[in-house]
Amino acid sequence: xxxxxxxxxxxxxxxxxxxxxxxxxxxxxxxxxxxxxxxxxxxxxxxxxxxxxxxxxxxxxxxxxxxxxxxxxxxxxxxxxxxxxxxxxxxxxxxxxxxxxxxxxxxxxxxxxxxxxxxxxxxxxxxxxxxxxxxxxxxxxxxxxxxxxxxxxxxxxxxxxxxxxxxxxxxxxxxxxxxxxxxxxxxxxxxxxxxxxxxxxxxxxxxxxxxxxxxxxxxxxxxxxxxxxxxxxxxxxxxxxxxxxxxxxxxxxxxxxxxxxxxxxxxxxxxxxxxxxxxxxxxxxxxxxxxxxxxxxxxxxxxxxxxxxxxxxxxxxxxxxxxxxxxxxxxxxxxxxxxxxxxxxxxxxxxxxxxxxxxxxxxxxxxxxxxxxxxxxxxxxxxxxxxxxxxxxxxxxxxxxxxxxxxxxxxxxxxxxxxxxxxxxxxxxxxxxxxxxxxxxxxxxxxxxxxxxxxxxxxxxxxxxxxxxxxxxxxxxxxxxxxxxxxxxxxxxxxxxxxxxxxxxxxxxxxxxxxxxxxxxxxxxxxxxxxxxxxxxxxxxx
Length: 542
Known about the structure:
This protein is of the alpha/beta class.
């Protein structure tokens, strides 16, 4: 750990401060930014002994803030079978068969990041097809969006599900002609399978966390919005009830500061988190919001749409919580002074949530609430206007564009996709838009996400934003989304020394070169936690 002051100079220091967007040097002492200005001014502020770092023409930015990740699920995903890139049912079966061949007799085979749109068959596998790959061990595959789980017969039996099992509220089980589960469990029904998956060994989980958060550091991420469950409801199923106690064990492995957003139907479960390591402001950890779901996803055709899906006209998705229950939870969090963060993807879900926020702020007025729409994937001109009018913040995932652009036009129709991930319309309306990954759903590679904002990889380019606006999404506007713009999100005296050094400036580089930018160094609280020269994403002493 650095005990002396640090002086950074000789590069393109992009402060994200409107009054002084560029600087010649930055002085750091005690984990905080002591001065920003000329080299002489910064040396003077440091006074005595300090270490000097010549940026050698590289770019320094505020550290990146990812406002929405699922930390424990992310670690778990990193420890299991990654199915990205699987091209056919036959290849899927072979990969499952290979994973099962080395497994213990009581193990479960868990495959993650599965996307049927990548398969030649473009459909979900059945339980029978999974049985042919592995019939002796329970097998559960989880879709890329995390909202659908597919099980083989052993997994379905272990969950105690058969033809007589009713669909849970807010979820559906795909059925064979006789009513027995066909394999796919959607939305809340997916918890029936997920809840049965054994919890990993604690020692292995600790090592996995160090690796996972080291990778985030290698992507320049210095702060995260940590979304976690407090009960069985949610993507982790019944194991989600252990997320808050378990994260306490992992915090020493997490160099990033954390802003906890907890999914809960009972406010007392949120209040209990204030007595844990998640609420330690001296260590950069805060509990700030309450998460709730309103609908599903495009990938599972469960996002709630105003009109049916173009390629699945038999459905337009559905709300996963009833309107009055959703409003009860919004009031519960709002009246406790907490931030409300609602998952809303479809245009019908976003309309329902925006209307509920309107009702909430009319019946329970509160200034500077900064309530959030998580994702806000499908909007309309009137929705954008209302989001701006109500002062709502949008936390969205540019990498969804990368993952979904190949099939969104077929699923939604080209007319609707003009308002899918409408970044330019939101920013133009004055809405604060914060960047996120929703990891493990998407990669935590912020540079790639910035590229998706600027180029949209060719998908509806009319909704692209500038490099400067994209940088703000992952810095100062992300800090604003977490009530933390006074302590992070820009390079200014008195703020945390959370900094990232890049090979070039994403705010100014030509769009075609943006993806080639590399992260050279990541600094959290004045401590270098990643240095590209070491080739490591773990803690690195400078």
